[in-house]
Amino acid sequence: xxxxxxxxxEEAVVKAKHCAYRLLEEIPELSYGDKDNQNLLIQGxxxxxxxxxxxxxxxxxxxxxxxxxxxxxxxxxHYDDNLEHSKWLTLMYPRLELLRELLHNxxxxxxxxxxNEAHYLKVLMDEIFGRNNFVAxxxxxxxxxxxxxxxxxxxxxxFIFVYSKNSEWVPRRLPRTEESNSIYTxxxxxxxxxxxxxxxxxxxxxxxxxxxxEGPTGRVFSAPPGRFWRISEEKLRELDKxxxxxxGPTGNARPSIKKFLSEVxxxxxxxxxxxxxxxxxxxxxxxxxxxxxxxxxxxTPKPEALIERVLRIATEEGDYxxxxxxxxxxxxxxxxxxxxxxxxVEIGEHARTLCQPRLEQVINGEQGGISESSGxxxxxxxxxxxxxxxxxxxxxxxxxDIKFPTLAAHIWYLETKTPLNQCDSSAYLGxxxxxxxxxxxxxxxxxxxxQGGNVLTSKVLxxxxxxxxxxxxxxxxxxxxxxxxxxxxxxxxxxxxxIPYDVxxx
Length: 506
Ligand SMILES: C[S@@+](CC[C@H](N)C(=O)[O-])C[C@H]1O[C@@H](n2cnc3c(N)ncnc32)[C@H](O)[C@@H]1O
Hints:
Elements: H1 9-18, E1 22-26, E2 32-33, E3 40-43, H2 46-57, E4 61-66, E5 74-75, E6 80-81, H3 85-102, E7 103-113, H4 118-129, E8 134-141, E9 157-164, H5 178-181, E10 195-198, E11 201-202, E12 212-214, E13 220-222, E14 228-229, H6 233-241, E15 245-246, E16 256-260, E17 272-273, H7 275-278, H8 281-291, H9 304-314, E18 320-323, H10 330-337, E19 341-346, H11 350-363, E20 381-390, H12 404-416, E21 428-432, E22 435-439, E23 455-456, H13 458-463, E24 474-479, E25 481-482, H14 486-491, E26 494-498
Helix pairs in contact: 1-3, 2-3, 3-4, 9-10, 10-11
The site of S-adenosylmethionine has 19 residues, from β19.
């Protein structure tokens, strides 16, 4: 497959692997509401933040929505948008790689972009997500009116590229709208309600699709040359008996098959998203003004209704949503109102001055944006984090301040490439593909001495939680050292791995 090349691409390709793996450190005074429902707002560079999320969220995120700087060569109030072209590609490549790792097998990623970088981004995403996982390029009508000062064209739209993690992904259908229902009518007062006359012909050859049929007035109809009836004569007569065939107001027109509104399903998503349905740039600017009256507005917010549509198609309640170029916090505000769980990452100070207070308002019952359409009242909460210490120092050695749950999640991910779902502070981390994993660290076995219980001895082996259940299974134990000889380890089917030497960075 042809791929994109640019100066320093090699650097971009290894960047995700080489970037520091950091802890997330909570700032409790900026967290708000019920903090235990797993919603996170993180201030920091999203490359390091995404890497920190991997051991906990890999394969869990149902929908990533990002709206990265478009590279419009502008300097906005809250961030700069003027990277040299190849630097922009180097910014995006490793972040998209990590986002892919975080996506659920049945997940999708949505990226807002405009003509400045869209066509390069498409090729980049083809490389990272696979060309056959490209789903659609949505056109969002962002402008309300033309910009007459434009030198050449006034741009009315942005793109939103949609890729799925695998090609089997099926978008959820959208609820029918008044507009989509309004084309159904009921000229014959059918008690089953409004209907649409459906085409009775098909282009595809059909062995039972060539016949002539007489209508109520005696007029005879056959399929037009080169086309076929889409149902057999027998079926057509059966539908006619049930008043499901329409022969026109006088009974003299060619038959059509009635499609009742009460029997059609919700709407398949389409690629043209109009401003009257999902809002425009003006809508989002107004939303910001209402949220932060008198304050310098964020230059490039998205309307909540746009995100609402994305989340309706890509997620259901309780699913994880991630936005790592959070801006003013629209994605997580909409996700909160729609009862999705979320992670938002923003590098700028506006993580604290816009995203955090915006979420507080939402939790307190803010009624702008999509509050009405999503039935939002109030409640919930989130934790605010910043990027903390590196888990490994510059020589690759484990930082001694690392706590048990962090090391447990890290080791679990290293071994299984899946996130550790629950870490209930037990030395037994769980089993994966018939291998049981144990971690002896931070005195997890209850021995309060600093190094207590971190060494695998015969006594420790006997006291390991659930150990007898793994008889005959392969067991991997991480610990500071072992006093068991090779033959004893072999006999118990144990592979011992030594902390910190056998614990590598991701
Ligand atoms: C176009 S704005 C997003 C707007 C957002 N969709 C909204 O509705 O407000 C892009 C944001 O990405 C942030 N950003 C840029 N580089 C980043 C990075 N490396 N890590 C985290 N955020 C970053 C910028 O500070 C800016 O706030």
